[in-house]
Amino acid sequence: MGATSFTYVIYIASTPEKVWDALTKDEWTEQYFFGRRVKSGWKEGSEVVYLRENDELDVVGKVLKNEQHRVISFTWGVPEDPTPRDRPTHVTFELVSLEGTVKVTLRHEN
Q: Please, is 30 exposed, middle or buried when counting C-beta atoms within 10 Å of its C-beta (0-12, 13-18, 19+)?
């Protein structure tokens, strides 16, 4: 089976700093990601974990790239996946400021 990917683009009336916080701070991810809290130091090589409401591990990964307020990329894996992948998938968020609006491009690859 070949590699697959999807890309979503959304425009948010905000600032790159606020959108960045919504992607990287647990008090925000909990509100916008189905109750999941993200935990990471967000340095390249740092672990990324998403925890369910009961602190159960949901998603694990490693930070691949961090250009604060512009690009964050990390691997994405589900520990309980019954068919583990040969390679982890990669999630990348790109933020571009456009006069009071932020263009957010999400790519999930592999």
A: middle
d(CA 33, CA 46): 21
> What angle is formed at CA 30 by the lines to CA 24 and CA 32, rounded to 5 degrees?
85
> What whole-number distance in Å separates Cα of residue 43 and Cα of residue 96?
21
- Give the strand pairing for 89-98 and 47-51: unpaired
User: Which pair of structure tokens corresponds to residue 12?
Assistant: 């948010």
pLDDT per residue, tens digit, the chain (110 aa), is 456 899 999 999 999 999 999 999 988 888 888 888 899 999 999 999 989 888 888 889 999 999 999 999 999 887 776 666 677 789 999 999 999 999 999 999 98
Chain centroid, CA 13 distance in Å: 19
95 within 8 A of 101, measured Cβ to Cβ: no
Q: Which residue stretches of the chain are H helix?
A: 16-24, 26-32
